[in-house]
Amino acid sequence: MFKSKSSKLALILFLAMSMLLAACGKGEKASTGGSSKNALEQIKDKGKIVIGVKYDTRLFGLKNPTSGEVEGFDIDISKELAKAILGDEKKVEFKEVTSKTRIPMLNNGDIDAIVATMTISEERKKEVDFSDVYFMAGQSLLVKKGSPIKGLKDLKKGTKVLAVKGSTSAINIREKAPEATVLEYENYTEAFTALKSGQGDALTTDDAILYGMVDQDPKYQLVGGTFTEEPYGIAVKKGNKELVDAINDALKKMKESGKYDEIKNKWIKTN
Amino acid sequence: MDIAGALSADHLKFLADGFMVTLYIAFISIVLSFIVGILLGTLRYAKIPVVSKIVAVIIETIRNTPLLLIIFFTFFALPEVGIKLSVTVAAILALTVFESAMLAEIVRGGLNSIDKGQIEAARSSGLTYIQTLWHIVMPQALRRMIPPIVSQFISLLKDTSLCVIIALPEFMHNAQIIYAQNVNYIFPIFFVVALMYFIVNYCLSLIARRLESKQA
């Protein structure tokens, strides 16, 4: 970052002005941390838990333009968490995250937890703390019906596989099918549109998301079963053992009471 | 393709909400970068020892860096040094920083295009350097700058769509959410998005043309 010195100078200059803007009312204030209380106590003091969720992923977290609400599996799980921790499922505030922004936003204190189709990985464990697995997905392939691709072994040299940026599935497919060309798109809809318009031969991501696509266009099907395990976890800022324990406790109770299965069956249809 | 489904009243309203955010962000960034751009451009033009050199380095650094990187910088890097900005402020800051540098060069070019003889004439008739700049050079230069400045504003309005990367709820972002509902919505939505950008930007061009002909 050899250029940052002078741009910093400029930034400081403009910062004062932006602060003024924020004061003028439109800018939302970021939540402040830094007190001696642990994260769980802070959430209880605030009386609400702020959760980062996806706004653009079918079945897990998708904003409904008609109602203005975000809907999906991750959303219902978050509401249950709020119910378990704060006694009321309405005491949850959703903030939009993407695969790129979720960890920085968590570490800045903008959100208390991430419930956003996030796979637990060793790499990510260095940056955040994860709860127990709350959803087990597996990576699979989506192709047009009648495609010669029947599984991983058919992803030969010259085959184009479509994936989504910033996701573990893009990394996995490079390992599992090193000869295939991997093209990465911004989000799932764009990747699926690319598949439909013939930009690629197969689309790869977690099976639960692929089933959502088949639901929209039955001319496509999943092939080859799942070839990875993608355990989704709820992430919190590092070192917040109390909050992780509270979340795990809530998940356990959800599973025992049957609420978990109810939510899962509502959103995830495997055929 | 599902045109009726894609362009339902609710979806259009949701798109309009996003468009208002785009206009709001663009408007504030335009006002701020116009002020800062004129200031920086004039400082660089005036050849003040040290100051003009520093300003030149700042302008060149920003101007030759992609806007996307500057957006990343204000949203991801500033919090590392303890400066936390909301998505809206981070977007406005990034756009203002970038567009100011672009405008500064337009301003300097405009000022340079004014014949030096005029400055000498003004100075010898007793005006100070600042007075000369303010009353003689700047008004003429601004008139010449209108076309490039307006096209810079048009770029700025379109560039707000890059803020989709930090999940600013602007026009393009809301469009993406709508076509995430159903993949068959993607092309009708793209068409509407393109049309809206075109209408607003074309209006900007028309205003600029009117301004030019009035002043000529």
UniProtKB/TrEMBL annotation, chain A:
Positions of the Solute-binding protein family 3/N-terminal domain: 48-271
Family: Belongs to the bacterial solute-binding protein 3 family.
CDD domains the record matches: PBP2_BsGlnH
Taxonomic source organism: Neobacillus paridis
Stated name of the protein: ABC transporter substrate-binding protein
One Pfam match: SBP_bac_3
InterPro entries: Bact_solute-bind_prot3 (IPR051455), Iontro_rcpt_C (IPR001320), Solute-binding_3/MltF_N (IPR001638)
Organism ancestry: Bacteria, Bacillati, Bacillota, Bacilli, Bacillales
Occurrences of domain Ionotropic glutamate receptor C-terminal (ranges): 48-270
Residues that span the membrane, as ranges: none
Residues in the signal sequence: 1-22
Record keywords: Lipoprotein, Palmitate, Signal, Transport
UniProtKB/TrEMBL annotation, chain B:
Subcellular location as annotated: Cell membrane
TM segment ranges: 21-42, 54-77, 83-104, 153-173, 185-208
Topology within the bilayer: Multi-pass membrane protein
Keywords, comma-separated and alphabetical: Cell membrane, Membrane, Transmembrane, Transmembrane helix, Transport
KW Cell membrane (keyword) present: yes
Limits of the ABC transmembrane type-1 domain: 19-208
Family note: Belongs to the binding-protein-dependent transport system permease family.
Protein name according to UniProt: Amino acid ABC transporter permease
Organism in which the protein naturally occurs: Neobacillus paridis
